[in-house]
Amino acid sequence: MDDLLIARSLFGTTMGVHIIYATLGVGIPLMILIAEIMYQKTKDRDYAIMANRWTKGFAVLLGVAIPTGTIAGVQLSLLWPGFMEVVGRVIALPFQIEIYAFFLEALFMSIYVYAADRLTPTMRILSVFLVFVGAAASGILITNVHAFEGTPAGFRIENGQFVDIDPWAAFFNPSFFVTGGHVAVSAFMTGAFVIASIAAFKMWKERKQNRTYKYHQKALMLGLVIGGIFSLLTAINGHESAQLLHKYQPEKLAAAEGLFETQRYAPLAVGGFTDRETQEVKWGIEIPWALSFLAGDRFDTEVKGLNDYPEELWPPLFVHTLFNAMVGIGTMLIFLSIVGFTYRHIFKKDRFPKWLMTLFISAGPLAMLAIEFGWIFACTGRQPWVIYRILKTEDVVTTATNLGTLFILFIIIYIILMVATVLVLRYYFRRHPIEQELARIKE
Amino acid sequence: MTDSLLAISLLWIFVFIYAVAATIDFGAGFWSMIYLGKRQMRATRIANKYLSPSWEVTNVFIVLIVVALVSFFPGATYTLGTVMLIPGSLVILLLALRSAFLVFSHTAKEYEKFLTYVSGISGFLIPGLLILILPISHGGYIKTTGGIESLSFVALLENWSTYAFFGFAISSTLFLSSLLLSDYSNVAGDDEAFIIYRRDAQILGPIVLLFALLIMLAIKVEANWLYENMMNQLAWLVASIVVFALSYGVLWIKKRIPRIAVIGIVIQYLLASYAYGVSHLPYIVYPIVTIESGFTDPNMFRALFVSYIVGFAILIPGFIYFWRLFMKDRRYIKSGDS
Ligand code: HDD
Ligand code: HEM
Ligand code: HEM
C-alpha cells in the first residue's frame, strides 16, 4: 500500500470506530431525556430505572467516544496537514463552536452522573437536556465541516491563495442544514433502535410474561415509537440530501445510482452492482423515470451521467451498493416500527410473533450499519477531492512516510477498546440485573 | 497589541490551563494506582473522587488547543502536523487507553486493579511525551529535504536534553497532583490522606526544581537563542524561584494551609512559563514558523474572537456550578463510595 492509501485507510478506520460511539452518544441522551420526562409524567418507576441504566451504559460509551474523537481531531492535523491549513483559514468556526458544545456536554454529563443524588428533579431534567443539546450540537457542527468539503463556500481563489474569506458564509454553506439535520435525525433513530433491539432481545430470553418482561416491553415500545418517527424524518431529509447532490455534486449522485449517460426520464436502479466495463448496473431492478423525479421532482429532469466527466474524476463505483443499502435499511425500519406499533396498540397484542421479534433484535445493528454505509458513501464518494473541485486528497496528505506501523498500532488499540467496551457493559449489567432493581421498588 | 500577539497569548493561556489541569488529572490517576489496595486506601478514594468528574472537562482542553492552534495559526499547521506525526500519534494512543480504562475501572469493580494499572501507567507517560513539543519547537530536529520537512525522531531520542524535559514533565505531574490532593483531602477532613499526599509533595518539590535547572542547562546548550532571550527575563525567573521557595516552605509549617501552597505553586508556574513564552516569541517553530508567518486571515480571527467571548460567557455559569458541586461541596468530597 502506498502512504496515501494507508493514510486514507487509517483515517477512515478511525472515523468508522468513532462514529459507532458518537452516534450512540447523540442518540442515547435523547432516550434518557424522554425516559426522565415519562417518569415525571406517569410516575411509573420503570422509566426512572430505564433512565438510570441507560445513563450507566452511556457513561461507558462516552469513555470511548471522547478519546476516539480526540484521536480523530488530532489525526486530521497529523494526516491531512494541507487540509487543516485550509480549514484554519476558512472553516474554523464549526470546530471552534463545537468546543463549547463539548464543554457543555462534559460539564453536565458529570453533573448528571456524579451529583444525581444532590439534584432536584427539574435540575436533573435540565442537566440531561443540556447533555442532549451538547451531544447533538457537536455532531451537527463537526458535520458542517464535512458539508463544507462537499459544497465549499465563503472564499475565492486567486493565484492559488484563498482570498475574500467570509467565515460565516463558509459556515452557512449550501448543504449545512440538510446534512447536519440528516446526521442528527439518523443518530436519534439509531439510538432508539439500539435500545429497542436490546429490549427485544431481553424479552426473547425472558419468555414468561412477568414483571421483567413488562419492563422490557415498555422500553421496546419507546424505542420503536421514537425510532419510527425519526426514521421517517431521516428518509424525508435524505431525499433532500440526494437533491442537493443532484444540484452540487452531480458525479456523486451518478455514481450512487450507477448512471453513465446523461438523460431525462432517468431510471432508478435499485440493488445490483455497477460494472465499469459494460457501463451498467448488473442484477439491479430498474424503475423507469424514478431517478429524474427524485432528483428534481419532475420526470423530465435531466440527470447527469458519469460519462460527462473524465474517468479519473469518477468516485469509486461501489458507492452505489453502499447508498442502496443505507436507503434500503431506512425504508425497512420505517415499516418495522409501523408494524410493531400496530400490533401492540391497534391489535392490542401482548406478544409478538417470532419473525417480528427477530426483526426487532436486528433493528439496532442495521441502523448502525446504515450510518457506516452512509458515511463511507459520503466520504469515499467525494474522492478524488477532499474539498470538492478545489483541493485533491493526494495534495493534502502528510509528507511523512512509513505510516504502516502507526496504522497497525491504531487498529490494535481500536480492537482492544471495542472488545473491552462489550466486556465491561456485559459485566456491569450482569452484576446489576434488572430484577434486583425492580424488586427494590416494591419494598 | 497586534492580532497575532493577542492570538498567541490566548493560546498560551489555554496551554497553561491545560498543563495545570492535566498534570493534576494524570497525576491523580497515578496516585490512585499507587495507593490502590494498600493500607492507605483512603488516599485512592480521594484521588478517584477528584478524577471521576474532572477528566472529561480536562480532555476538552486538548481539543481546544489543537483547534485554537489550527484556526489561529494555519500556517504552522503544515509544519507541526508533519513533524508531530509520531509523538502526536503516541500521545493520542496512550490517551485513548488511559481515558477508556479509567472509565472502565469505575464500572467493572472486580477488574479494578488491572484497569487502574493500565490507565495509571499510560496517563503517567502522556505528559512526558506532550512536553517533547518544546524541544522540537526549539529547532534542530527538523530536517528539510527537497522542500519536505521531517522530524529526526532518533536524534531527539538520542539527546540527553530530551530526558531533562521528560523528567521535568513527569515530576511536575506528580508534584502538582500530590499538592492538590493534599488540599482536597484537607477539605474532606481526611487526615490520613492529607499526610500521605503532603509527604509526597515534600519529596517531589526539590526533584522538580532539579529538573527545572537541568532544562535551563539543556536550553543553554541546545538552543542558545532561547537562552539569551530568557536571560533578558531574569526578573521573572527569579521571582518564580522565590515564590516556589515560599510555597514549598508552607508545606513544612505546622499550620495546615495547603491551599496557599497550591495557589503559590500555580503562580510560580505562571511566572516561569511567562518568561519562557515571551522568550520563545516570535517563533512558533524555530526558525521556520513565526506568529506572523503562520497567522490566519483577519476576518477569521475576528469571527473566532467573537465566538470565544460569546462561548465562554455562556459556559462560565456552567463551570461555576460544576466547581461548586465537586470541588467545594463537602457532601461530595466526603461521601463514602467513589
Ligand atoms: C440510520 C442511518 C441512515 C438512514 C436510515 C439513512 N441515512 Fe442517509 N446518511 C446517513 C445515515 C442514514 C449518514 C451516516 O448520517 C450520512 C453520511 C453523511 C451524512 O451527511 O449523513 C448519510 C448520507 C446521505 C447522503 C449523502 C450526502 C452527501 O454525500 O453529502 C444521501 C444522499 C442520503 N444520505 C440519503 C438518504 C436517503 C434517501 C435515505 C432514505 C431512507 C437515507 N439517506 C437513510
Ligand atoms: C464519522 C463518520 C465518518 C466516517 C465513517 C468517515 C469515513 C471516511 C473514509 C472511509 C474516508 C477515506 C475516504 C477514501 O479515501 O476513500 C474518509 C476521509 C475523510 N473524511 Fe470522512 N468520515 C466520517 C466523517 C467525517 C467528517 C465529519 C469529516 C469532516 C470533518 C470528515 C472528513 C474527512 C476527510 C478530511 C478525509 C480525508 C480526505 C479524503 O479522503 O477525502 N469525515 N472519511
Ligand atoms: C458526524 C460524525 C460525528 C459525530 C456525530 C460526532 C459526535 C461526537 C460526540 C457525541 C462526542 C462526545 C462528545 C463529548 O462528550 O464531549 C464526540 C467526541 C469527539 N469528537 Fe466526534 N463526532 C463526529 C465526527 C467527528 C470528527 C470527524 C471529528 C474530528 C474532527 C470529531 C472530533 C471529536 C472530538 C475531538 C471529540 C472529543 C471531545 C472531548 O474531548 O470531549 N468527531 N463526537
Would you kindly provide a written description of the structure presented here, covering whatever features stand out?
The complex is a heterodimer of chains A (443) and B (338). By secondary structure, chain A is mainly α. Helices cover 73% and strands 5% of the residues of chain A. Chain A contains 15 helices and eight strands. Chain A has helices at 3-42, 45-79, 81-90, 92-114, 121-150, 167-171, 176-206, 211-248, 250-257, 290-296, 319-346, 354-380, 393-396, 404-431, 434-442, and strands at residues 156-158, 161-163, 268-270, 273-275, 280-282, 285-287, 385-387, 391-392. Chain B is mainly alpha-helical. Chain B is 80% helix and 4% strand. Chain B has helices at 3-34, 41-72, 74-83, 85-107, 112-130, 133-137, 153-158, 160-188, 191-222, 224-231, 234-250, 258-280, 298-328, 330-334; strands at 142-145, 148-151, 283-285, 289-290. In chain B, a hairpin with a 2-residue loop joins strand 1 (142-145) and strand 2 (148-151). In chain B, helix 2 (41-72) crosses helix 3 (74-83). The longest helix of chain B has 32 residues, at 3-34. Chain B is globular. Chains A and B meet through helix 2, helix 3, helix 4 and helix 14 of A and helix 2, helix 3, helix 4, strand 2 and helix 13 of B. Bound molecules: CIS-heme D hydroxychlorin gamma-spirolactone (HDD) and protoporphyrin IX containing FE (2 copies). One protoporphyrin IX containing FE binds next to helix 1, helix 5 and helix 12 of chain A. Chain B: One of its GO terms (molecular function) is oxidoreductase activity. Chain B: Its EC number is 1.10.3.-.
